[in-house]
Write a structure and sequence with these properties.
The structure holds two protein chains of two kinds. Chain A is mostly beta strands. Helices cover about 5% and strands about 25% of the residues of chain A. In chain A, strand 9, helix 2 (about 190-195) and strand 10 (about 200) form a beta-alpha-beta unit. The two termini of chain A are about 25 Å apart. In chain B, the strands form two sheets. Chain B has an eight-stranded mixed β-sheet with strand order 4-3-6-7-8-9-1-5. Classes of the chains: A mainly beta, B mainly beta.
């Protein structure tokens, strides 16, 4: 299905300053998709390590764990027809509980957590479902306006079954008062689009005395029916 | 009122931000959780066809190289087959993944892909496309991933009959899609986000 450019953010959003010199100005070239767009690399569950989907533990020293509110993030990867997308690689990255990234270009004064790396990955099951454990990231200030703050968020990179489905987005947390103030959130064009990226608290999936849960479904562009079945594992 | 069609909306895109490498190439950032970064090697053994190197840089509208981009490529093997579950025409080269991912050089931003020259892939109507590599570029300041393609300067005959290249209205811009041959098996494909040499980006 063609991408709905009226729904997706525009390239040029001057209130998010970095977009000004990084946004193409000519019209995009449209043409019907070919095999080059309708095929995609295959990622097998065998490539995953046992802690890849546990950000609380995957960078921690033995016997230790990351600091912060413990959460489970779960949901399904779907396409626009509502079908689950099995075998989809989902990669996530985030700041630590203080709002600090483990990156040499990061200058926020909040401290690093020696037991938190900030990356995780998971592959959806046969129904398109995924789940990972992490700590709730903190909000943080960033250089754009003089006092802009990012709401707490987790970055998602998702593969589908066609390279044209490739998507990067961010998940926000229900009730965060920074959401409507954020210039990056406000590249979204409607309240409905913001809601689509806001994960609700899901008490049914919490682990009592352990971790709260948030639910986040991701929708990829639809594909023609016939490409769905018999996905093999490899790579 | 008729029934609802009940299609879902694609999740809206948000920028990859300045720290995309933490999630997609953590080893490059010194975060050793997974081992080798995914997409670093496109060859898993001896491959069929001509082995080539593609280098390039992504420039912003001021001509400044992006040093925080993530570049992915996807391509057919030398026979024109994709290493994908959706490839029904035959078995692609088992030693070639077809997919590469580069964080760019830490200081210069230059990306490098060690790959093979792709074969020709048909359109749905059977007409052959010229050899090409699909590019997908994300970075801070890019609100939705940019899609384009690299074709090859030294495939003039195939390019001249390519169904997509030939339908571009502003033919003067076609060279922005051509990887330049810089040596035997060496190509350069620079990407310009804006300016007089703005690369043609696709909505596909």
């Amino acid at each position: 299905m063609p991408r709905d450019r009226k729904w997706q953010p525009d390239a040029l959003t001057p209130w998010y300053k970095t977009s000004v010199k990084r946004s193409p100005q000519a019209a995009l070239l449209s043409f019907p998709s070919t095999l080059s767009e309708e095929t995609s690399p295959v990622f097998g569950h065998g490539m995953l390590g046992p802690l890849d989907s546990d950000l609380i533990q995957n960078f921690a020293q033995p016997g230790e764990s990351a600091i912060g509110p413990r959460i489970v993030v779960h949901g399904r990867v779907l396409d626009e027809t509502g079908r689950g997308v099995p075998g989809a690689l989902v990669e996530v990255w985030q700041a630590n509980a203080g709002g600090r990234y483990r990156h040499k270009k990061e200058g926020y004064i909040a401290p690093l957590d020696p037991n938190f790396g900030g990356c995780g990955r998971v592959i959806t099951d046969e129904t398109g479902a995924y789940e990972f454990r992490t700590i709730q990231p903190g909000p943080y200030p960033w250089p754009n306006g003089v006092n802009d703050w990012r709401p707490a968020h987790i970055h998602f990179s998702v593969f589908g079954h066609g390279f044209a489905q490739r998507l990067i987005t961010q998940m926000y947390f229900e009730g965060d008062p920074l959401i409507p103030l954020c210039p990056i959130v406000n590249t979204l064009k409607s309240e409905e689009a913001i809601r689509a990226l806001t994960a609700p608290l899901d008490m049914h999936r919490t682990s009592p005395m352990d971790a709260r849960a948030y639910k986040f479904d991701i929708v990829l562009r639809g594909r023609r029916q016939s490409y769905f079945e018999n996905r093999k594992e490899g790579l | 009122m008729p029934q609802s069609l009940e299609y879902l909306k694609e999740s809206p895109s948000q920028t990859a931000g300045p720290y995309v490498h933490i999630g997609c190439t953590p080893s490059f950032c010194g975060i050793d959780v997974y081992g080798e970064d995914l997409g670093k090697s496109m060859k898993t053994g001896p491959v069929t066809g001509q082995e080539i190197t593609i280098r390039g840089t992504v420039f912003d509208g001021t001509g400044t190289p992006l040093r925080d981009a993530l570049i992915e490529i996807w391509q057919a093997d030398a026979a024109g087959l994709y290493a994908s579950a959706n490839e029904t025409r035959g078995q692609a080269d088992p030693n070639f993944t077809g997919w590469g991912r580069s964080p760019g050089h830490m200081e210069t931003g230059e990306f490098v892909f060690e790959t093979v020259k792709p074969g020709r892939v048909p359109m749905p109507d059977g007409r052959l496309q010229a050899p090409h590599i699909s590019f997908w570029i994300v970075a801070r300041g890019i609100n939705i991933g940019l899609q384009t393609r690299a074709y090859f300067e030294d495939e003039a005959d195939a390019n001249a009959e390519d169904p997509i290249l030939t339908r571009i209205e502003h033919q003067v811009r076609v060279p922005t899609l051509l990887a330049k041959k810089t040596g035997e098996g060496e190509y350069r494909f620079d990407v310009h986000l804006q300016g007089p040499n703005e690369t043609i980006f696709f909505d596909v």
